[in-house]
Design brief:
Blueprint (H helix, E strand, L loop, with lengths): L4 E8 L2 E8 L4 E8 L4 H16 L3 E5 L10 H16 L3 E5 L1 H9 L6 H11 L21 H12 L11
Parallel strand pairs: 1-4, 4-5
Antiparallel strand pairs: 1-2, 2-3
């Protein structure tokens, strides 16, 4: 399978983070889209713009339908809308369960979000400046973490549960 273009999206309370990859080792673009009003409508509009600009072959998101998913109803609706947008555009929608992500990355010693983000920043130097400091228990999550949370399942698209390249 040739290196395909993937758009990975991670919705958050403040909008969404995204990462665009061409194959498992080439980062094309990344960022945070902040929305304040009509969050789902605004997010979906911005995601649609990314899809139209980059024309990805796959959209990767978290699997909100997984039993252990703790995503709120608004985010679940947004993730469902992203899947519907992908389907309308003829794009593959790939959903990765959080349990699979945790299991996969824990083998590399990355059990927390920050540890996973650090691992990805080591793999992609472009991300180093985006890496937030470790979160203290009383702190809100840094918005930049949504970029890494988008990248995590995107990279798993090319790797099986055992870490071997499958695509």
């Amino acid at each position: 399978m040739p290196d395909i273009l993937i758009l990975a999206v991670y919705p958050s309370t403040r909008g969404f983070g995204f990462a665009i990859f061409k194959g498992p080792s080439r980062l094309i673009d990344w960022g945070i889209k902040d929305v304040r009003i009509e969050k789902n409508v605004s997010c979906l509009s911005k995601i649609k713009n990314l899809v139209e600009f980059y024309e990805p072959e796959v959209v990767v998101t978290e699997d909100y339908a997984e039993k252990r998913s703790r995503r709120c109803k608004r985010i679940q609706v947004l993730l469902r809308s992203i899947a519907q947008l992908a389907e309308e555009k003829g794009i593959i929608n790939h959903c990765v369960p959080r349990t699979t992500i945790r299991s996969f990355y824990s083998r590399f010693g990355a059990r927390t979000k920050h540890e996973r983000a650090k691992l990805i920043a080591e793999q992609f130097p472009e991300f180093e400046l985006q890496l937030p400091p470790p979160r203290k228990i009383w702190m809100s999550e840094d918005p930049r973490m949504s970029i890494f949370e988008a990248a995590v399942p995107a990279l798993m698209y090319w790797y099986g549960k055992d870490g071997e390249r499958i695509a």
